[in-house]
Amino acid sequence: MRITFLLHDACTAGAAVRGTAGLATALAAHHEVEIVSCYRTADRMAFPPAAEVTVRTLVDLRPSSPQYAGATDGQWLPGTVCPYDTAYAGPTPPSRLSEERLAAHLRSTDADVVLATQPHLVCLLAEHGRADYLRIGQEYRAHASHSAALRRELEAAIARLDAYVPFSRAAARAHRTALAAAPVRLTSIPVCSPAPGAEPSTGNSKVVLAAGRPVPAERHDRLVEAFAEVAAVHPDWSLRVYAGGRDQQRLRSRVAELGLHDHVLVMGAGAPMGPEWAKGAIAVVSGSGAEPSGMSIVEAMSCGLPVVSTDCGHAPREIITPGEDGLLVMDHGPFQDTLADALRHLIENEAERRRMAGTARRTAERFRPERIAAQYEALFTACAPALAPAGGRPFRNAVGGTRWRRRVRLLARRLGPLRRAPSPPAVACRVTADGSLVFTLPAQHLGPGAWNLVLRPRDPDRAEPVHLPVERGAADGAPYLRLTLDKRVCELAEGDWDVLLARSDGSAAHPVRAGLIETAHLLEPAQRLASWREGIKTWLPYPTPGGGLALRAWHRPGHAEVVTFDVEDEVIRLTGQLLGWRARAHHYRFQARLRGAPDRVFATPCRVDQDGHFAIGVPVSLVAGKHPGGEALWELFLTAYGGGPRIRLGMVTGDLVDHRHIRQFPAVSYAAPEGELLFRPRLTREHDLLLSATTARTGRPDDRRTRA
């Protein structure tokens, strides 16, 4: 049969896109499947389906598209089928143009089944869909989270469909009660979650992870407040919140207000989340049920994390078995205290945490695309008799009538690149347990002859390019080729390196696209131990803004890694650790040097223990007394007594290629006789620590004030 999925914007990374890509891929093994996206806002999908799935766009909103000017000229008006809803108050809300094109598609399509994934698409399917194909809606957002007007429109639309699929049994029961007289078939099918491409978590890190949008429905502020209680007891654990959206800064401000800058990082939205989940030991979902699919819960379980979830909505309690693969926290009463207790329980009971992690991976197998696709196929078969009274046609034979169309479509897709420049191959990169790199590239993108994967330094004066021969002998016929950059035998100069692909005959090298990037092992205790012995030698793969693949290399035999920064009793306090045996062979004092004026310095004592842990206290009055006026930047060092080395203070360890927009530091304002000054730490692109001094701006919630 021919199956069509309707998406709002297939280029986003929401639950509807992730679930649809996996389900469409599984169904495409036996059916002709297409995804129709109202909008296209990027060159590539963040979660592309298999090549057998056709993806069509009704309105192309990429600035480079010829459609862009027309789509934004006169026709970019609010939609009319369903009331405007805050769920779509982003850059691409429903518009008259998209509705007109989707309505025309629904009237002319030759699909056997059409599935709508979002409320306004469900309304449009009910309004314009024909009765001679199956019209099915899916519930990726909780019914109760919509406005009253949209709920009324949505209920009326659901009653006109052939089937409606909530993701939990309880939600299906609620809809049956509300629509008891409607002929629509209401049945629950769990969310579809493909197996992660990344390696699962080892559980060795001391990181708690949360993912989602920081909107009121997710209530990440409650999680941050709960983690304040956890950090007070377990300061070596940290929290990462993967969130995008307009309230991201509000969440960061709350972190600053609670003084959790050393323990909580508000990351950007992670896409895909698999490699990020692998960095954690515990996952937490603290929403209020706006996402009824439970997609985040299943994805975290797939990567081997026990999940602590709010017992809200329906999905968590139907996915999680408390005490077996996670914990449920009641969404009322002293919620923050209860959530903190649950997190502390898992932190303090490692054996139980690891047992739950193993069970969580087994639980996630219930949601694999093949199993969910079989349930949808059963639904299609059960609904098929309803088409006959409406004059519907029988389904086309999945293995007969449509097979030739699939073959023609695949042939056209293969011939297409011959008429246009081929896209760069996607190269995946994984950091191994010892810090080496494993590159994985698709063999089909390599023509005949010998090839090299080339690492080219952006600063050609620092080093020569590194060539890794692509060995094909034993892997002939394999879909992927793997190359290892061994940390034990290879040296990379500090800096950025671009990854390219070139023929061995010396012809020009071409860039590659960044595939799946896995850096979880950089958070392992083994990495910290290696750095303690040998200093910093880290290779960190990352995607460039243009989608290419690059590496950031750090090579510092002696390094002073800052762990905490705080201000108390009119003293700026830093703690950290000296890494590398060469660095620990000396005694040090702290020294600050004014950038641009190397002769202008000040120093204070520095305590260093036998393991290299250091503690620095800098009186704010001392920094203010040395301030030259205007805006100044102080470079920070540990300088050895007796003419030994001088080591920059920095924050280099870990998996972040650029801390500057993620880490936040408290500021201190000082009322000096000549005026008020504001001191705040900053990080350079190389992750070296600076202390900036500027004219203070009053009213900042995270400023800590002292008086002269």
Q: How is this structure best summarized?
A:
By secondary structure, this protein is an alpha/beta fold.
Structure write-up:
The structure is a single chain. The chain is 25% helix and 30% strand. A seven-stranded parallel β-sheet has the order 3-2-1-4-5-6-7. Strands 24-25-28-27-26-29-30 form a seven-stranded mixed barrel. It has a six-stranded parallel β-sheet with strand order 10-9-8-11-12-13, with helices on both faces. The radius of gyration is 28 Å and the shape is globular. 43% of the residues are buried.
Topology:
Layout: E1 2-9, H1 15-27, E2 32-40, E3 54-60, H2 67-71, H3 96-108, E4 113-116, H4 119-128, E5 134-138, H5 148-159, E6 163-165, H6 169-178, E7 185-186, E8 207-211, H7 220-233, E9 238-242, H8 248-257, E10 264-267, H9 274-277, E11 282-285, H10 295-302, E12 307-311, H11 315-319, E13 326-330, H12 335-348, H13 350-364, H14 369-383, H15 403-415, E14 426-431, E15 437-442, E16 451-457, E17 466-469, E18 480-485, E19 495-503, E20 510-511, E21 513-518, H16 525-534, E22 536-543, E23 549-556, E24 559-568, E25 571-579, E26 588-594, E27 597-608, E28 613-619, H17 620-625, E29 632-640, E30 646-650, E31 667-672, E32 675-683, E33 689-695, E34 703-707
Parallel strand pairs: 1-2, 1-4, 2-3, 4-5, 5-6, 6-7, 8-9, 8-11, 9-10, 11-12, 12-13, 14-21, 24-30, 31-34
Antiparallel strand pairs: 14-15, 15-18, 16-17, 16-19, 19-20, 19-23, 22-23, 24-25, 25-28, 26-27, 26-29, 27-28, 29-30, 29-33, 31-32, 32-33
Helix pairs in contact: 1-14, 3-4, 4-5, 7-12, 10-13
